[in-house]
């Protein structure tokens, strides 16, 4: 018999009753006194009552312990429902309505007082924590209400476990409502009262049953202490309760004061007359009271209106501060408001969307009406998009995430760093539908992405080119433009030659400038990196780039723009990239430059001829159009890769020229030369010319490379012809060769030497191929420039590497610092 | 599973401290207090070298024979201290880190609550829940 299983509702109800009866705070209920009164109030025959007391063991003990009391209550319920009193039935009866006790008015008052006292002893409340829903409140309320309620009371002063629902106080025992306690009783009275008083709220009256149900639900989830009893009596009658609904909206004062007394008594929570609110809600929810937290349409509409007063945009957010002010008006304790906020701010962004606001408001109302706050946000209050992205909502709701898109985005961003972001969101996404917000954000991010991608084309080269800032002297912007265009035109290079004239002109303009640049060793642009060769390359590269860009109408190339960018790309990228770049540039530039190269090429010629005479002769013969620019070697090496054959030819040629290079080079040269010759002969249109020039340049460069290689005495290494590695070593050798050469004629940067070498070879080139020679020379210069640029880039990268290594070391040291205790 | 979890404000007064109730809480309070010195030392040391960039997770602050103390400090100088039992050797660094991360997230949520004034003790039930989840599950359910 002792093993009594009670439902939560029963538990709460019984504990309330127990506490009510336990006037002595001894956790025992005397057989006489309240308990007996209570039992008598059950409207059972006295024999039944006696039987019950016997069964529960109170007669043995002489008093009602808690368990006995509970058993007795349950037996009363059983008896009231007409079931035979049996011990076994204690646990077997399912859905037993709570015992009903009819209380007389005086009794109610007495109890009311008792309740007040009880409320003080909250500790008495059962640990079940269910908020004690005190009947007394109902009674108390009734009492408070005074006459009106009193008069109405008798009609139904039955402390119904649940009340009821509706006016007639029907058997509140409707299973659904049964769990509820006192409040139900009050509702009826309230209802009447409300009808009398409440004008404003429509459905207020008599939401008993739903309220009861809601009550139950409130009780169950709630774990927090609800001093209920005390509160109850203190709760103001319905009107205030009703108003409490709206209370803290604007006309708070009227209702609030009414509730104050209760709040005063209440230590933690203010419960307005639960019944009042409950009745309202119950009425509203009469249809769906199974979900006590559901917001009815009317309520929602009301909430929405309130939301509008704060935030006109229904899809917007209410910032935390505004919400705080608003809800503070409800006079709930800050702690409770804080808890309500925790529950309702679903996405934890510090702001309330409409859904969140409605949930919070609903919770506040419920709280004011005596409902205990749930530990977890009820599902019906989960933020749902009011409007709908049905799909989004559906998915989100099912996921219990509440807000659709935003929670997905928001919740992940719960990291400490995110709060700011989350808070930024409200401003950003003024959309009730987080989905939209999400999409907006995504779109914005997409736009951002696009933007990045737009920049990408321009940047890659620069990024790839060189991590080191280009020391461009003159027009950085210009260079950037060049770079951009070059980037864009890289792919166009093959076609740029087709454009022929303008690019050539521009190239020509650049070429002379570059040449001058080279000649004067005015790497003042900063190109004169440690490697004059690279500086050589730079101008050439620039020219190339310029030529590339020229097709795009970049005709402002006249001033020798420092070529850094294009070169940088070369240096940074893999050799292949460089090759491509070079190739493109070469193709584009060389043909153009070749045509334009003539005039500038002339001056240096005499010098180079002096030194390079020995091998220029050979080269000149072999190459014709192939401007054997030593400078070109390096730059062209990348170009060479696609042009391996030329290179091979060149090497062969070098062999002829008594170079030590493997035959491959000479072969390349040889091959290239014939080709060049043929092509030059063809030179029908500018296209062909350009192409041939390009090829010639390339070949020339190849030959130059080979020549240089031979000149320097270093085996080209490109034994088998098209080999990537060989060009590089050859390049270097050529480079060194250039360095050697400069001493002879142009002591300036290597590029000048290279150019000199190239030029030297040029004279030997049959004048008939002058045009090709020019092109070759131009290409040579370009290559030289590229080489210099590359060398510079290389040095810069080396520097960066050193820096990074240092940084790494420092980081490691720091790590060690942070680790001292880790050994422990 | 922690034995004691504490949140200390920038001014080094506790915002929240919770211990396993079975043990002498005063001992943990004292431990947390002394660990603040180590925390200060760590953040000042790291600050010099790296400037702003500082790891939030401080790692093991110091061990005693009974327990180990881990620290974590946010960018706003709010410190989290976790005391774990030394006998619980199965706790890895990653787990401690994840505990701190959870704490930090919960703390952030608390801060986002407009009804919470920074500097007040933390009374958030959600935060309590998180902390309880991390505490050693003792037989006595508090």
Automatic annotation (TrEMBL), chain A:
UniProt region (Disordered), positions on chain: 130-151, 164-206, 391-420, 485-505, 526-754
Coiled coil: 783-814
EF-hand domain residues: 332-367
InterPro entries reported for this sequence: EF-hand-dom_pair, EF_Hand_1_Ca_BS, EF_hand_dom, EH_dom
Record bears the keyword Iron: no
Positions with biased composition (Polar residues): 527-550
Record field: compositional bias (Basic and acidic residues): 690-700, 735-748
Pfam families, A to Z: EH
Keywords: Calcium, Coiled coil, Metal-binding, Phosphoprotein, Repeat
GO CC, one annotated term: cytosol
Molecular-function GO terms, alphabetical: calcium ion binding
Biased composition (Gly residues): 710-720
Biased composition (Low complexity): 631-664
Domain EH: residue ranges: 10-97, 299-383
Membrane-crossing residue ranges in chain numbering: none
GO biological process: endocytosis; endosomal transport
PANTHER family cross-referenced by the UniProt entry: EH DOMAIN, RALBP1-ASSOCIATED EPS DOMAIN-CONTAINING PROTEIN 1
UniProt-recorded name of the protein: RALBP1 associated Eps domain containing 1
Species this chain originates from: Cyclopterus lumpus
TrEMBL record, chain B:
Source superkingdom: Eukaryota
Primary subcellular site in the record, as a coarse category: cytoplasm
KW Transferase (keyword) present: no
Cell compartment(s), UniProt: Cytoplasm, Perinuclear region
GO cellular component, one term: perinuclear region of cytoplasm
Matching CDD domains: TRAPPC2L
Gene3D superfamilies: 3.30.450.70
Protein's UniProt keywords contain Acyltransferase: no
GO process terms (BP): endoplasmic reticulum to Golgi vesicle-mediated transport
Keywords carried by this UniProt record: ER-Golgi transport, Transport
Sequence intervals crossing the membrane: none
PANTHER family (UniProt xref): TRAFFICKING PROTEIN PARTICLE COMPLEX SUBUNIT 2 (PTHR12403)
Family, similarity comment: Belongs to the TRAPP small subunits family. Sedlin subfamily.
Descriptive protein name: Trafficking protein particle complex subunit 2-like protein
Gene name of the record: trappc2l
